[in-house]
Amino acid sequence: MVDRSFADLSLAALYDTLNPWGPGDDFYLGLVRSAESVLDVGCGTGRLLRRASADGHRGRLVGLDPAAAMLVQARRHRSGVEWVLGDLLARDWGGRFDLAVMTGHAFQVLVCDEELRAALRAVHDALRVGGRFVFETRNPAARAWETWTPDRVRRVTDPDGRVVRVWHEVEGPVAGDRVTFAETFACETWPEPVVSRTTLRFHGPDALSAFLHEAGLTVVEQYGDWRRGPLTPTAPEIITVARRGSR
């Protein structure tokens, strides 16, 4: 059996290789550069805020993540970023941020209604009046999970030069707006593959707006792609910009 700490650290070290910088990162970087204070919820390896800091951002940058292994990667780089281990309920954020972001489809791991409502209330309370919350979810109409099949194998090289194979497989039937899948990582030098199972929730735009409104956040913009294209039935993403009201 693979030691869990080994697996967590190994997979965290692979994260940026598996998810290279792309148009979505450019989209968020532009927002971060224009905000004085930023909370990155589920910051992962912290590359977004590290890049902003390296580019000269002089305001407050806070990266929050519940995975210690991810923050190990973030802290390996010198930066002016504050790294916090935990989730949105880890502390009272005190309405100090101009911008909160959730990248990498992290919003979709908030599966239960109660969990989602608590997270959105915490985002609301972290923002100043007029502050923005920006995140993306996969458009359920595009049915991205139909491409998550084990015949689509990616091969990446880890920091030690080892080739790691990665594939996805949906487990069981799709249950409403929830999809459960396994992500498998295999390397010849590991005693056995590492399997990570995740359930994601695929919200449509109306459901997103309703949850946000309940938390005191108003949708002001929605896009279907990183070029700020319109949200259409076939668009791959639902990129949402919401603003905190006065309450």
Description:
There is one protein chain. The protein has six helices and eleven strands. Helices cover 26% and strands 31% of the residues. It is globular and about 55 Å long. It starts with a helix and ends with a strand. The chain has two domains: 4-140 and 202-244, Vaccinia Virus protein VP39 (Rossmann fold, 3-Layer(aba) Sandwich); 142-200. The chain has helices at residues 4-18, 23-33, 47-54, 68-74, 113-126, 205-214; strands at 37-41, 60-65, 82-85, 97-102, 127-138, 154-157, 163-170, 178-186, 194-201, 217-223, 237-244. The strands form two sheets. A seven-stranded mixed sheet has the order 3-2-1-4-5-11-10, sandwiched between helices. Helix 2 (23-33) crosses helix 3. The chain is an alpha/beta fold and 247 residues long.
Topology, please?
Elements: H1 4-18, H2 23-33, E1 37-41, H3 47-54, E2 60-65, H4 68-74, E3 82-85, E4 97-102, H5 113-126, E5 127-138, E6 154-157, E7 163-170, E8 178-186, E9 194-201, H6 205-214, E10 217-223, E11 237-244
Parallel strand pairs: 1-2, 1-4, 2-3, 4-5
Antiparallel strand pairs: 5-11, 6-7, 7-8, 8-9, 10-11
Helix pairs in contact: 1-4, 2-3
Would you summarize the structure shown here?
The protein is an alpha/beta fold.
List the defining traits of the structure above.
247 residues; alpha/beta; Rossmann fold; 11 strands
How many beta-strand elements?
11
With strands numbered from the N-terminus, the spatial order across the biggest sheet is: 3-2-1-4-5-11-10
Helix content: 25-40%
Assembly state of the chains shown: single chain
- CATH first level of the largest domain: which class? Alpha Beta
Provide the structure class.
Answer: alpha/beta
Examine the coordinates and then state which fold CATH places here, giving the name of the CATH topology of the largest domain. Rossmann fold
Terminal Cα span? 51 Å
Shape descriptor: globular
Total of DSSP H or I helical runs spanning 4+ residues: 6
The whole-number mean of residue pLDDT values reads 93
